[in-house]
Amino acid sequence: PNSSAIVAATVGAMAFACLALLACLLGICYSHWRRLKLQQSQRLDQSDSLLKSSGSSSPSPPPQHQQKQHHQQPALSSASGSSFAFGQHRQKLDSTGAVEKLLTASNSSNSSSAVAFVCPAPNVSQQQQKMLAVPNNRSRGSAGGGSSSTGVCNGDSLPSTQQQQQQPNQNTSGVDTAPVFDHSQTGSGSGLPILLPRTVAREIEHRELIGQGRFGQVYRSEWRNDPVAVKIFSSRAESSWSTEGHMYELPGMRHDSILGFIAIDNIDIGLETQLWLITDYHANGSLQSYLTRCTVDQHTMARMLHSIASGLAHLHSEITGVKCKPAIAHRDIKSNNILVKSDLSCCIADFGLAVALQPGCGNVIGFGSGGLGVVGGSDSGIGEANNGLVGTRRYLSPECLNASQDARDFTALRKADVYATGLVFWELAVRCHDPNRGITAEPEYQQPYHDLVPNNPTLEEMQAVVCPPANARPPILPIWHEHPVLSRLCQVLTECWYQSPAARLEAMSVKDQTARMLHSANELLAADKETGTVVA
Asked: Which residues are listed for ATP binding in this entry (predicted)?
């Protein structure tokens, strides 16, 4: 009897201890839940107060505990598995009107070496800017063991409240003040927001290898049941990967004729780090591959020409105001870097060699072994990489081929893009097949200068053909002058190919001319439908 009582007492004590422990855990969970709900409520209240006070000329400062909590927000990192995704997720953020970044880079802790494009928004209060800003210490890494501070924007911390009051219209901290995410949509309010896609690469499944080149590989993949294209760069192409990411992340880069950007990511697979660029997927592939398979009628050709010209004009244009998009020179325009969308319009891709014009001072900004810097600058580390001899030799303009182009002259870089665009237009015209308009021939796809240089021409071979005294250009067929759309294109081609860069058309003029071509093609198509020449 005594032993039975001892066992019963022991079991009872153990049960009581378990119940006490369970009650303690429930209490801790409940306390944590209340704290998170309180933080969420405070953030929602603060968001409402910001909206109410956005029109006020003297907004009240945020509570001290909110400021402290904001300064403790963890910085974005490019550690293995993390990703920086913008695109569609940023559309709702753009409506806040907060300060948009252009381009900020620092290769060291010395602020004098930074190249920063910052455009303040006049209708945004200082309080909104402080609450929407986050530290952005992106470290993409360097395969060469150099500086790892090569992200779009680098900075150790946000400026203090006192510094912001002394210099309210300047961003001297080197941090990105763009509203990367909306705090009111972050769930509990603690940690990083749920709107920031930190695990894009983990959610992607590769389906098919669709391309391979000197940069790496391109896969048709799926992300959340949607098709995407994943471009995986080799480690030796890190500068191209980083440059493309910088260019796509610039504000104002979302355009119908620019390839849609989703995310940039670096993935550690053990023996190496893969560099990923995730974009929209277009099943028709590049313009070159499409023209190899298919011909186009005059209306489709005009639609493609206008979409390409629209994309180039958008790149070359500087947009001021809240968006603050800098002018961009592509420097590798060719049919293989233009994609055909499902509606048979086109979009420009591959910005691995692109450079931007720094607003206000005229410096050409590019990326090289030393990070972002002024092209040709003594401390940029990219002077040798930007001497004009970049791109695909077949599409290089005469001034690029004979090394007379000044890579620091942004106007010259744009005119080189126009020359290459004219060659792409010629490729389209060659494959124009429109029996309804008397164009019955179906010539095979031809590269520019296909009859004058081999498939992989050397620099000397291209110089001998394109530069003086030869000054050769692709042939303009006589039949093209007999049709309203193609005849107008003949004049555009001639004005894009002038030997002198100053004599060539501007991208906006090319866009206007192709708009007239498309208008003429639409009229022809409408007339054919009325007469029953084609089936509607």
From this structure: 231
